[in-house]
Amino acid sequence: MNKLLEKLSPELQKKLKRKKMPTFEQVMLATLTKDYFSDKEWIFERKLDGVRCLLFKNKTKAFLKSRNDNSLSDTYPELVEATKKLKVDQIILDGEIITFKGNVSSFEKLQPRIGVKNPSKELIKKVKIYLYVFDILYLDGYDLTKLPLITRKNLLKQAIAFKGPLRYVIYKNEKGLGFFKQACKKGWEGIIAKERNSSYVHRRSPHWLKFKCIVEQELVVGGYTEPQGSRIGFGSLLLGYYDKNKLIYVGKVGTGFSDEFLKKFSAKLKKIETKKNPFSNAKDVQEKQVHFVRPKLVVEIGFEEWTKDNKLRQPRLLGIRTDKDPKKVVKETPKNIIPTHQKK
Fold first, then answer.
1. Residues 241 and 277 in one domain
2. Any idea what the CATH number is for the domain that residue 124 is in?
3. Which tens digits make up the pLDDT trace of 139-172?
4. What is the three-class DSSP state of 130?
5. From 92, 113, 183, 313, which residue has the greatest number of CB atoms within 10 Å?
6. Which residue range(s) make up the domain with 267?
7. Cα–Cα distance between 314 and 301 in angstroms, integer?
8. What is the DSSP string of 236-259?
9. If we measure between CA atoms, which residue out of 257, 326, 330, 254 comes closest to residue 293?
10. What is the pTM of this model?
């Protein structure tokens, strides 16, 4: 047994599970809420705007996986090299791949790296990435997911040396509301609230909560319009989300595109064109010169709010998401979640 695990109390050691090291784990996901709070039973972390990543080291081998079990090793080779140098035999870490625009993590700035295998030295230097690690799932033959979060955080900090592109996600105790207000003033996406004693579950959970400063939503591309004037590629993207296996049209986005994006994404759209309108509420699509596509592409959209007729107000493209199954893209609505002991 790893020396760090030997130091745990007998009670905590009972929560450890001897297990062969897996090659993938479903990640724990946070639930969106508008019930912001401070609480001594919760910790609060900065919400990072990037790509979720699981990092694996099994003796001399190291590799990266996305949240939908795709390999990221060839896309972020510098993270693989940093993982190989970790002074543990076996480990699985959970974190977020990000890059910065000033002092703020930027999903838009990360776009040139997403999906690019074997990036050039120039691209690696131009878009410098980091893996901010916030959890540890496995260590030297033992599954740690049943341990309390705060215990896992302490083990994480002691298990590896954070240097180079690997960074530790620090957290605040108790004072969630103050931290959230600071986050919004600094232009962050928001914060994540996590119950101190929660175990790690492989699904979306109310024990991890998203406090968001900025409204964002993953959406599926179901079509595009012809470009107008000097625009190249396409004009707007037609967007939707799934509800009971039906793709619901929620409007179009026509801003946030660079000429390079218009050219590359246009080529992808043309490969999946179809004559069939994929949206279940087909009558809502009133755009002219529309080309429909098979719903295979997912994008991240920032917008002001949802309108009364369930459409996006002032949407803008933030980037492409390659780590999300289109069928799992649903409308993210805030849940009413208040810590149990705070309820009257």
1. yes
2. 3.30.470.30
3. 999 999 999 999 999 999 999 999 999 999 999 9
4. strand
5. 92
6. 216-328
7. 10
8. -EEEEEEETTEEEEEEEE--S--H
9. 326
10. 0.88
